[in-house]
């Protein structure tokens, strides 16, 4: 069993920023290829992704206390991946391994 990863605000935001940064450097074809994998997500993963997207939208609108409360509420609902990488990142790794 994997150890629990602390769900601090900086940890979560760091993962989100790294994912966004990665997607920004992709070419149009690579971006289409990455987003096609999103259709293979399970309903639970889609729900978690939606929760994280809502948190991102509120990131720029909220003060720190409100944002912290939102993260805690989302974590209580299980909106964060339990110490795992995002499905998109997992899929990229699989694709790299099979193409090598």
Ordered list of secondary-structure elements with their pairings:
Blueprint: H1 9-24, H2 28-36, H3 43-59, H4 64-76, H5 87-99
Helix pairs in contact: 3-4
Output the keywords.
single chain; 100 residues; mainly alpha; 5 helices
Q: Can you offer a commentary on this structure?
A:
With 100 residues, the chain is mainly α. The chain has one domain. Helix content is 68%, strand content 0%. It is globular. It starts with 8 loop residues before the first helix and ends with a helix.
Sheet with the most strands, sense and barrel status: none
Cα separation of the termini: 29 Å
Count of individual helical segments? 5
Average pLDDT rating: 63
- The low-pLDDT segments are none
Briefly summarize what is shown.
By secondary structure, the chain is mainly alpha-helical. It has one domain (9-99). The protein has helices at residues 9-24, 28-36, 43-59, 64-76, 87-99.
